[in-house]
Amino acid sequence: MIELEDVWKIFGTDEQAVLAEARRSVPDDAVLKRLRAVIGVGGASLSVEKGELVCLMGLSGSGKSTLVRLINRLLEPSAGKVRIDGGDILSLGPRALRELRSRRIGMVFQSHALLAHLSVRDNVALPLEIRGVARTRREDRADELLVRVGLDGLGDRRVAALSGGMQQRVGLARALAADPDILLMDEPFSALDPLIRHDLQTQFMALSRDLGKTTVFVTHDVDEAFRIADRVVLMRAGRIVQTGTAADLVAQPADDYVRRFVQNARLPARAQDPIVKARAIA
Amino acid sequence: MSDHTARDEAIDRFAAINSTYYRRAFRRIGERRGYVPSLNIAAAVLGPVWLAGRRLWSAFWPFLVADLLAVVLIAFALGGGASAGQSARADRLETLAATRLLEAKTANDRDAGTPIAKSLTRSAAALEQAAKDARQAAEDARTGAWLVALLGTGMLAASRLVAGGLANHIAERRFRAWRLEGDAGKAGFSHLHAAGAAALLAIFVPIVFLHFNDRTLFDAFPSDPAWNSGAAAWLDRFIAAISSAVSPAAGTLTKAINGMLGVMEGILTQTPWPVVMAIILAIAWQLAGFRVFLLTFVAISYLAILGYWEKSMQTVALLGTAALISIAIGIPLGVLCGYNRRVAAIVRPLLDFMQTMPAFVYLIPVIALFGIGKPSGIIATIIFGIPPVVRLTALGIASVPASVREAAVAFGASRTFILFKVDLPTAAPSIMAGVSQTILMCLSMVVIAALIGAKGLGEDVLHALQYAAQGQGLLAGLAILLCAIVLDRVVQGRRVQ
């Protein structure tokens, strides 16, 4: 279970001064310009249940990619609490943090972020190599995952020889390699063309149901969010505007912005499915 | 239409004064393609002063220079042009002729017909003729001076005409750029800048005229030679102090370098030549394939047949040592520069300095510290050879995609893991290019290293230079070239093919 409690991330030279200012009132652009600061995430609170798939949704610059990086401390929060299964991750030392990242959290990036000089198999096995797993064991595990994401037999290829969709499958396999219980996905399918994106979404939903990983999935695509998410978190200018199921957002939008954001979205049948709803509420 | 008014309003703000004129002028320019004749009288009259007032700096400087050049020509002509020198010479010759004539007369009066009196008379006549010639030359130069004056005036007029004809076009271009800049862009006519330009002219024009009136005034910069010698003496003391301070360390360093060089030379020159040749050929084949193997074979044959074998192995040992040290220092330094922008900001000018400073300049302190001989040659070679590997390593490290590094961090990688498993492999092509550049740079130093006592092929080139032995020089030079090509190809490996 992931819990974020009043988490802030401010980019700038004097984080604390801006933070004090921002806590008093929402600072306007002129003030931020003067302080040369940007509020990446402003006072976000969120909890993700075990096995739940939550989508962070918003326009570019709304802070969703920043927020997801606060969960594994790729970015250091300026204020607030981040807990995983009740354990405060902000108090972890460097070694414990590396341990947490390598054992419990897998991450997928929009730009694949694969290592061009390694084979597909070695890329998938990277998290295990970081953890110090012996070569044969990590290669076996990588091959197993390549089968799982539909790339069986491609382990010996060079990464550059693969198409964009295949590269993203490699990224997904890599995130699963260490068998983490949390998956962070930062716009994994945004750069792909629509057909491949749809295929990967389908495949990912099946995989995620099988594996039951707690997942935070970042996207700017409403349809994608509504299709795959148990719950959707809509962000705007660093702040969380509304949290709820797809049906909630459509039926009871918190404000006009949410209404405009979701008005053209396709609401999949799944959103009305009582089982899914029950799971989301639980 | 509304767009037109918005544009006109913008022109009003941009021009500030005389805006109706600029509205019309800019519209005329915008309505047709290509050059539309449009003469700006103010610009034509004021020239650089107008350009400065309108802040058109890229046009201001060339037109200022054109004005000053024209003024120099005019002042030169008014100051008598080349005739000044000729008249002075004529004056000198005339006084000399007069005194000589006087001497001849007294000699004749005393004793007419003596050889001395005769030669004095002849000399006086010759001087008189020379003076007349000089006078004539001065006269010619004076008419020439009018031509120069005419040229200068014409140049001034032409420059102003061009300025006037281009002014509206330049201003219009600036106007379009200014509209993009928004609030940040400055508009209107700056009297301050115009005054500054006028002041520049007011300072330089009189200086030019004064100079051609009295050439002694601005003949040379009033520098005292004592300043130069004083600074040099201070540096002498500084270098002496440093070399005595670090001489123990320098001694150790010399010994270490000598040791390394000894090992390299031992391997390359003490081992029987068939073994060394076979190993080199095998390495070439293994690392770079058959074509490089053939090239290496040809190169080795050339070196061996023309008797350069031992010398070339000495050279390779020397530059190999230098290159190894360069790489051993350069890659870590480059990595540091790639990670830390502040370190890079300090190191980069140093590298520029090391590459640009002529080798002969830093040879002096290197010799002062390490004495004459191979270690000095190696150190000079390192100074020249190390920059490429540092630069290209830094470039390679800095261009590792941030996302790849972030991914490694997200999976719990430590800094060491990222350096050795992510950054260095990703930067490897760039680093290898740096290594090969460094080796070539090192090789290009062999002749200079020979100058301070390093043996090898450079010595032969040096000898050829001293005795103007063209054939010898070419043969030895070709030997150096072959060594360089083979080393480069072998180090580059298979990637090049």
Question: Your description of this structure?
Answer:
The complex is a heterodimer of chains A (282) and B (497). With 282 residues, chain A is α/β, with parallel strands linked by helices. Chain A has a single domain (2-281), classed as P-loop containing nucleotide triphosphate hydrolases (Rossmann fold, 3-Layer(aba) Sandwich), CATH 3.40.50.300. Helix content of chain A is 44%, strand content 22%. Chain A is built from 14 helices and ten strands. In chain A, the strands form two sheets. Chain A has a six-stranded mixed β-sheet with strand order 6-7-8-3-9-10, with helices on both faces. In chain A, strands 2-1-4-5 form a four-stranded antiparallel β-sheet, sandwiched between helices. In chain A, a hairpin with a 2-residue loop joins strand 9 and strand 10. The longest helix of chain A has 18 residues, at 194-211. The model of chain A has no long low-confidence stretch (mean pLDDT 88). Chain B folds into two domains: 2-213, no CATH class; 239-496, MetI-like (MetI-like fold), CATH 1.10.3720. Chain B is mainly α. Chain B is flat, with a radius of gyration of 36 Å. Chain B starts with a helix and ends in a 5-residue tail after the last helix. The chains are: A alpha/beta (282), B mainly alpha (497). Chains A and B meet through helix 4, strand 6 and helix 6 of A and helix 16 and helix 17 of B. Chain B: Pfam families: BPD_transp_1. Chain B: Belongs to the binding-protein-dependent transport system permease family. Chain B: It is a multi-pass membrane protein.
* SS-derived structural category of chain A: alpha/beta
Order of helices and strands of chain B: HHHHHHHHHHHHHHHHHHHH
Q: What about the largest sheet of chain A?
A: 6 strands, mixed
Q: Using only CA atoms, what is the Rg of chain B?
A: 36 Å
Largest sheet of chain A, order of strands side by side?
Answer: 6-7-8-3-9-10
Radius of gyration of chain A: 19 Å
CATH class of the largest domain in chain B: Mainly Alpha
Roughly how much helix do the residues of chain A carry, as a percent range? 40-55%
Distance between the termini of chain A: 13 Å
Catalogue the unreliable spans of chain A: none
- How many H/I helices of chain B? 20
**Oligomeric state of shown chains:** heterodimer
How far apart the termini of chain B lie comes to 63 Å
Structural class of chain B: mainly alpha
Mean pLDDT of chain B: 88
